[in-house]
């Protein structure tokens, strides 16, 4: 199944996540919008890292990447992204 | 005082424009070019979309095809922008660690936008920086910027609307969510131009010269007129081809 969530944050940036999952396991995640992430490659790395994960693991996977790796998000907070992805896993 | 190479205003096609910004960023980042301010315009008109944006959500491709508006995906994040003949675009590139550009991304937007605000004020326009990355006049956007940090460089490019062909606005698919907290009901009301504010035409070359002067003053550089290096020019065709490719455009 595929589910999407869209949120707009104060400051005006839009974040959309689309998650394809089967039996509670993430097959594919796409993170799109008009936000900024530095370095940019971090978004694709996060998407790759989430493949095969269950909703319960999303938080630790993303926290580990972002807090360990000098990644800056502008326009949304990591917790927002985590919540949206968790909510889209069917 | 360190020198800032200023590449004078010239009009380019959308793929050339993005390719040249990247070529400069790579050469500045590796120490082979000096910090650079490039001023440019767009022909034909184009929509540029942010690095992370989903093209089909942002752009009316049928409209663009029928009106000859090109579409290009930027190296920088941020939102979709319609670039028409009335726009003056700037790109500022400095080596990462250059004292002119704060390490903190949000702070660096404020610092790099400040000279544009100063140039607008010299023109008699009451402009203010609105975080994260906009410059506004009475609540309406007249300039927007986007930044990337790659190749050892900081690249910030952005628009300054001297005039705009509003008939091409349907090229952008504007989502209602995006305007929720803004006063204006639609994008036409959310955007303004120097021509609207001052009720006169300004030459892009003149505004470009003012902007360059203020960049020198604000970021404490000595200005040095220059042009793209042989190496930068050599990189452009390959990069332009990538920006033109469907693979790059439709990657999201």
Structural write-up:
The complex is a heterodimer of chains A (90) and B (252). Chain A is of the alpha+beta class and 90 residues long. Chain A has a single domain (2-88), classed as CO dehydrogenase flavoprotein, C-terminal domain (Enolase-like, domain 1, 2-Layer Sandwich). Helix content of chain A is 39%, strand content 34%. Chain A has a three-stranded antiparallel β-sheet with strand order 1-2-3. A two-stranded antiparallel ribbon of chain A has the order 4-5. In chain B, a hairpin with a 2-residue loop joins strand 9 and strand 10 (153-161). Helix content of chain B is 37%, strand content 28%. The longest helix of chain B is centred in the middle third of the chain and has 18 residues, at 105-122. Chain B has a single domain (3-249), classed as Bira Bifunctional Protein, Domain 2 (BirA Bifunctional Protein, domain 2, 2-Layer Sandwich). Chain B is built from ten helices and eleven strands. Chain B has helices spanning 14-29, 55-58, 61-67, 105-122, 176-179, 187-190, 194-198, 204-219, 230-244, 246-249; strands spanning 3-12, 36-42, 46-49, 70-73, 81-83, 87-95, 127-130, 134-137, 140-150, 153-161, 222-226. Chain B is an alpha/beta fold and 252 residues long. The interface between A and B is medium-sized, with 23 and 28 residues.
